Amino acid sequence: MANTSSARKRIRQTEKRVARNKARKSRVRSFVRKLEEAIASGDKSAAQVAFRAAQPELQRAATKGTLHANTVARKVSRLSARVKALAAPAG
């Protein structure tokens, strides 16, 4: 157990930060899941709306340091490509 006041403070700070990051990641996953469902349904307009909602959440997670910026860029790029592919004719 922490023995100094500074160590106890670090524990308190870590607990708060973990809770914030957990909530933020959960929120991102929820938005991405809604987008995945819209893509799976094949409804391009719904997918575009879901993408426009998910993108700022992903960017916010990167800005706040919850997710790495490159991870967010990769996810946004891949999701965007999948949304765009819905309009392309099959074959």
Keywords:
single chain, 91 residues, mainly alpha
What is the averaged pLDDT score? 94
Query: How many E strands?
Result: 0
Q: What general form does the structure show?
A: elongated
Supply the helix-strand structural class.
mainly alpha
What is the helix content? Answer: over 70%
Q: Biggest sheet, in brief?
A: none
Radius of gyration: 18 Å
Number of alpha- plus pi-helical segments: 3
β content, as a range?
Answer: under 5%
Question: End-to-end distance, in Å?
Answer: 62 Å
* Helix and strand run: HHH
Function: Binds directly to 16S ribosomal RNA.
Pfam families: Ribosomal_S20p
Protein name: Small ribosomal subunit protein bS20
GO molecular function: small ribosomal subunit rRNA binding; structural constituent of ribosome
Structural overview:
It is a single chain. With 91 residues, this protein is mainly α. 81% of the residues lie in helices and 0% in strands. It has three helices and no strands. Helix 1 (5-41) runs antiparallel to helix 2 and helix 2 runs antiparallel to helix 3 (69-85). It starts with a helix and ends in a 6-residue tail after the last helix.
Short description:
The chain has 91 residues and is mainly α. It contains three helices and no strands. One of its GO terms (molecular function) is structural constituent of ribosome.
